[in-house]
Amino acid sequence: MDFEEWNSDQENMPMPKKSGNNFAKGVATGVFGTLIVGFVAVMIFTTVTGAGSSMKRPSLLSDKVVGKIGELVELINYYFYEDTDEEEMANGLYAGLLASLDDRYTEYYTVQQHADLQIAATQNYYGIGAKLKQDADSMVVTIDHIYEGSPAEEAGLKDKDVVIKVEEIEAVSMELPDLVTHIRGEEGTTVHLQIMREGEKDYLEFDVMRANIDLPTVEHKMLDGNIGYIRILEFGAPTIKQFDGAVKELESQGMQAMLLDVRDNPGGMITAVNGILDEMLPEGTMVYTQDKYGKRQVYTSDDEKQMDYPTVVLINGNSASASEILAGAIRDFEYGTLIGTKTFGKGVVQSIIPLEDGDAIKLTTAKYFTPKGENIHGTGIAPDIELQFEYQGDLEGEYDEMQDNQVLKGIEVLKKEISTKE
């Protein structure tokens, strides 16, 4: 299992391997691991303050209900064939209450799960910048990827290194989510790792300085015809800065058109996608949310920045949430062309609400609407040019954009627009 990859029940499309990030996976690389199996990581995040004990006692907690809970606990304690953990039972009670809402995006989180959720939302944490994975049978922990410029890279750690110990903890002695909590820590502190590396007779010892890690969420390269290709893996706190860096580098290389790829992008923070749209679009409403009371929150772009590049956006059935906000705004502003297949169809917003004891809930609190007022929940966004994915190269080899039929179609469209513009 990969700790720093989240799972999704969205449809998967067969795609070839790609170095660094595996393009074959149906969802983008993240850092929210298998603490919550089957979690669909396509939420738009907001954070609100918990109401806490200031709220009145709800009618649900009548004496009858409280009494029945007590009766059930007594029966479990007396008759259940093993000893029970009251804290685990309480967490199950809370989680069951939220599960009764029958909303796939609403969940209860313990303190540790809340911390991991925040990392997933922001794509930022304090650690060493190494993606780890653990074999489900042997429990062996391996470094799957070292992020460029990270403390792990500076210390000399390498991909495929096997983690033997974290401080004095045997790596195989615990599940990866628990082990990772010992690797992360305060910025500026160090963590000692014992490593086994192929070709080395003895174990290697590393003291790695922890730092503030911004996970890579943007990839870019220049394609034929001075077309800048930018793939957004997901929308986290560092995405706007990374997008800006990609645009500036491509502009320095003579970019004349932009090919944005949000295929398999599960979404993320609404502030991140709106920050990118604000830099691209003219003045106007990019998206708005509306709760059950009819209260709206409108996100608008100003006219301070506006990109004037012919633009194509690649989408598919795994483009969700914030990716659909981007696609919807591009479509409604008539700013660019959507190519691919219909998007996932998630048009609701979740708020992360912290509780007084450090736990939290993620609650669906509103719907969102495209600039022209469409809520795409359950329907998705259809492309302007529908094109099923076909990879024309070696499925087992390194991914090559020029063997991707959807990329090639985007290049074709953009080259026509460039020539028309000239």
Topology:
Layout: E1 44-47, H1 63-79, H2 86-99, E2 107-109, H3 111-122, E3 124-127, E4 130-134, E5 141-146, H4 151-155, E6 162-166, E7 169-170, H5 176-183, E8 190-196, E9 204-209, E10 211-214, E11 218-223, E12 227-232, H6 239-252, E13 257-261, E14 268-269, H7 270-280, E15 284-290, E16 296-301, E17 311-315, H8 322-332, E18 337-340, E19 348-354, E20 360-369, E21 385-386, H9 405-421
Parallel strand pairs: 1-14, 1-19, 12-13, 13-17, 17-18, 18-21
Antiparallel strand pairs: 2-20, 3-10, 4-5, 5-6, 6-7, 6-8, 8-9, 11-12, 15-16, 15-20, 19-20
Helix pairs in contact: 6-7, 7-8
Tell me, what is the CATH class of the domain at 218-349 and 360-421? Answer: Alpha Beta
Low-confidence stretches: 1-43
Approximate helicity band: 25-40%
Order of helices and strands: EHHEHEEEHEEHEEEEEHEEHEEEHEEEEH
